[in-house]
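Limitations
The structure tokens in this dataset are predictions for the assembled complex, not deposited experimental models. Users should treat interface geometry with appropriate caution, especially where small molecules or nucleic acid strands are included. An illustrative entry is reproduced here so readers can see what is and is not provided.
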Amino acid sequence: MRSAGACWHAERMDGQLAIRLRGVIKRYGPITAVNGLDLDVPQGTCVGLLGPNGAGKSTTMRLLTAQAIADEGELEVLGFRLPAESKQARARCGVTPQLDNLDVTLTVEQNLRVFAHLYRIARADRQAAIERALQIANLVERRDSRVDKLSGGMRRRLLIARALVHRPQLLLLDEPTVGLDPQVRQELWALIDALRAEGTTILMSTHYIEEAQRLADTVLIMSHGSAVAAGSPSDLVAEHAGREAIEVYGAPAALAEAEAAAQAVGLRTRRTGTSISVLGVEGADGRAPEGERRPTNLEDVFVLLTGEEIS
Amino acid sequence: MREVINFSSYWRSATFSSTVEPTIYLLAFGFGFGSLVSRVGGYRYVEFVGTGTVATAVLFSSAFPAMFGTFVKYQFQRTYDAILAAPVDTEELVTAEALWVASRAGVYGCVPLIVALFFGLNPAWGMLTVPGIAFLSGFGWACFGIAVAGFAKSIENFSYVVSAVLTPLFLVAGTFFPLSQLPEWAQVLGNFNPLHHCVELVRHAAFGTDGWADLGRVAALVGYGLLTWRVAIYAMTRKLID
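Predicted assembly:
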């Protein structure tokens, strides 16, 4: 009974992808920033694009608002084909950029009002939309403050609320918590989680593993412009890193030795900088080295799939 | 479209000093030269310069703010990135910016004329067309400024444009001395200077029209506006959409 319901649900969702990318390629001169990317974001879910700096996450975000035009491939946002119908798509999307582009000479409320105009909210609904956005940002008290007087966390909340002023069906968040301290990050996670609970579809790019693990229903790991793995965070961990890992500490030479030994018996390893993690050691008792046992996590998968060195 | 204009107007409510400089020119030339030459081109010199500096005010309140404002907004404030993520395209963005700058030029352009009225310029009904002339010229210069900002790699590039293009056009526009004093080739070239047409139109608005020739000047300004408008859209699309 339950599975039949879930199945029907999945089928209905399939016809309602908020974002659908197929074979998207974007080149900048000799550099291919996005290289054959496929991406599905079903409505009502939160998908996290996880990847190191330079993996093509921000370019993907720009492609979705037609601020970059793909060289090849198909792009659909909310059923509109890009770039031809991007304006209709943009009217139904909210975008929070990585770099703060609030107008610092205006007040909080004026920033929201400008975007209420840009998103063509009818005059009668405008004030209500602004009030709602102020509440989302928890900035009702600061409505008359100029933006350059706000703290970093407040500005970021305002940036997200600005993207929500017109009740978009889809929210694009590019690195929503980059450069913020842990307290502010938690606050923003609570905000994003609340939006997700309300059923807003979210595509979020991040290089913070914990952020993807906490917020995303599905994580897509990107490396060098294409998707190298996709799935729920727990599935990805189980599939690529197993259940448990052993940490081996020691001098660099000893670490290299432990790494070679583990690989020789068919175990996957990753470097952490201070240790070697030998992954998927459950049920490999005879072959596993001595060390500290710990549960595997998404970071293991991330490093395993996107490489240990910074390219 | 209206939304964007509304938005622009919010944004820089600060009044602009572009009227001060032409007024200083007006006073300096008016009093300085005015004591040496009493009549130029059949007009008293203060009348000649008072009408001419309208074009200077238009240039200073359109080309310069458009150049610097546009560059700062995309390079440093990234405002255009935010706007283009909303359902606004580059064409609308450029048009709205240019219309807004042109509207201000329409207002600021009148200031030297009003100052000249206090110094003995006789009021005329034709002067009521001056805001329109200033707006039309201002639109072309605003688009010119936006296009320059779109093509410029850095803000230092602007000095080339100012020295090599704007300053000569500004000096050889018939603002401070009539072009008829110049060699013939320079007079012919003067017809390609949009600022010269603006100067002449304002002068004729104050002292009586030149009939068909003035219609031709309006057409030249419309043409200049259309050309720079398209070039500005092209330059900014290249800059903002990759």
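Some entries come with short summary sentences. For this one: The mean pLDDT of chain B is 85.
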